[in-house]
Design brief:
Layout (H helix, E strand, L loop, with lengths): L12 H34 L2 H17 L1 H8 L4 H24 L5 H29 L5 H29 L2 H16 L11 H7 L8 H13 L2 H22 L1 H8 L4 H25 L6 H21 L5 H29 L5 H12 L3 H15 L2 H18 L3 H4 L24
Helix pairs in contact: 1-2, 1-5, 1-6, 1-7, 2-5, 2-16, 3-5, 3-9, 3-15, 4-5, 4-7, 5-15, 6-12, 6-14, 9-15, 10-15, 10-16, 10-17, 12-14, 13-14, 13-17
């Protein structure tokens, strides 16, 4: 039987949360090993920027196109079961690819299909875990948990990149893929022993006390909730512009290392590891510091300015010295948690628990909305004019957005939205934000 726990008991929430979190950490490690191996396989086999951009596009489409529906379903379903099924689907898709590599029948489109399935299942899992965190963790610790999550991502980048490069030398591709299956099992196991708290709405539905409304109505409710929050919509628009340039740029990083710097998998591992080390440091800083006490959003824009500076260093690194690229990647890594962590904490601490998956998925879809177009353009353009231009424009835009964001009142004052203002009316439509 799964163990119950409560965030009201400061001694009880930590063991349960971090046991589940630890299982997910192993799963993320396996996923990053597979991602590194597959991307490097495509780089070596094709040498095409278009192929790499397409691979990134395939992984992004489920989040952009299907993300809002995924978030709506997560807000309706038992979140523990959702995570179990999502991890299981990822494992099954990986097993199929293991068999294809084992019999030497794998094609590029097979990899695309598996990447799509893994991305879609990951969307269900990520939304379920993210929306459940506010019910598992006391609100005063949410920003620090965001810092811990960013440290995890950075640590995985440090470990996964060189480990992936090493494993490519000593194992066949199917051996690396099999590791992901094992880590998925590790992630699923704790979910059978601990009960993930559910929003009151899901609990009422499970007990038959409330009538389930149509999926489309839930989706519209989440959309109205977002549209009535001007500050968050503007942040989403800013993310659209930034991701339009940065998603293509970083999807082409393997080719930048291989063709511009003349490096191999080891050098790519250095650049990725530098980013990971930076993310660990940035997550540690955020976890201890917690950001500016009076303004989490100001913390985000300080981080965004720093990200822009690091990207510019990466863009201007001379071909004769990959260490400049490593330094730029380190700075970007440090600043990424400081940029992204506070936004997540604002949403988790302000939005109603039974609305969070929809808000996270809608925000993610909005932020990534232009990335597919950027990826479709990036490959052909980079093949002709070079990859550095994408990094240069992305760095400049990050710095401009950091200054612009603090000049917009709706963005600067986003944390002034209270929980009362975000309550849903009796007709299931959200109250307008800021008293309009």
């Amino acid at each position: 039987m799964a163990t119950q726990f409560s965030v009201r008991d400061g001694r009880r929430w930590k063991p349960a949360f971090f046991t589940i979190w630890g299982g997910q950490a192993f799963s993320l490690l396996g996923s990053q090993l597979v991602q590194f191996a597959l991307i490097w396989y495509l780089t070596v086999e094709t040498g095409s920027a278009t192929v790499l951009a397409t691979a990134s596009l395939v992984g992004l489409v489920p989040h952009v196109i299907l993300g809002p529906i995924v978030g709506t379903l997560v807000d309706r379903w038992d979140r523990r079961r959702t995570m179990v099924v999502a991890d299981g689907v990822v494992a099954l898709a990986t097993i199929v690819l293991v068999l294809l590599f084992a019999v030497d029948r794998v094609a590029i489109w097979h990899i695309y299909v598996v990447m799509f399935i893994r991305s879609l299942a990951g969307g269900f899992h990520g939304n379920a875990m993210g929306a459940s965190t506010s019910l598992m963790v006391p609100v005063e610790h949410l920003t620090r948990i965001q810092g811990v999550n960013q440290m995890l991502n950075g640590g995985l980048n440090v470990v996964a990149a060189p480990m992936g490069a090493l494993l490519l030398e000593i194992l066949p591709m199917q051996g690396i893929l099999a590791i992901d299956v094992v880590t998925a099992v590790v992630a699923i196991t704790p979910l059978f022993f601990f009960q993930v708290p559910q929003p009151e709405r899901i609990e009422r539905q499970a007990s038959g006390e409330s009538q389930r409304v149509p999926v489309w109505q839930d989706f519209k409710e989440g959309l109205r909730y977002m549209l009535n929050w001007p500050g968050l919509m503007m942040i989403g628009f800013m993310a659209v512009m930034i991701n339009f340039l940065l998603s293509p740029a970083f999807s082409l990083l393997p080719l930048l290392v291989k063709d511009y710097f003349g490096g191999g998998a080891l050098e790519l591992g250095w650049v990725n590891s530098a980013f990971g080390i930076g993310a660990i440091l940035g997550g540690l800083i955020l976890g201890v510091w917690g950001g500016f006490k009076k303004s989490k959003i100001a913390t985000t824009f300080v981080g965004l300015f720093g990200m822009g500076a690091g990207i510019l260093i990466l863009a201007q690194a001379p071909a004769s010295s990959i260490w400049w690229a490593v330094a730029g990647s380190l700075i970007v890594g440090i600043m990424q948690p400081i940029t992204n962590g506070p936004i997540g904490a604002v949403v988790q601490s302000t939005v109603a628990p039974d609305m969070q998956a929809r808000v996270f998925s809608l925000l993610g879809s909005l932020a990534g909305g232009m990335s597919p177009i950027g990826l479709m353009l990036a490959g052909p353009i980079a093949d002709r004019v070079g990859i550095q231009a994408w990094f240069l424009l992305g760095g400049i835009l990050c710095i401009l957005m950091a200054f612009t964001g603090m000049l917009i009142p709706a963005v600067r004052n986003i944390e002034s939205v209270s929980k009362v203002e975000t309550e849903v009316r009796d007709d299931n439509l959200p109250e307008p934000m800021f008293g309009n």
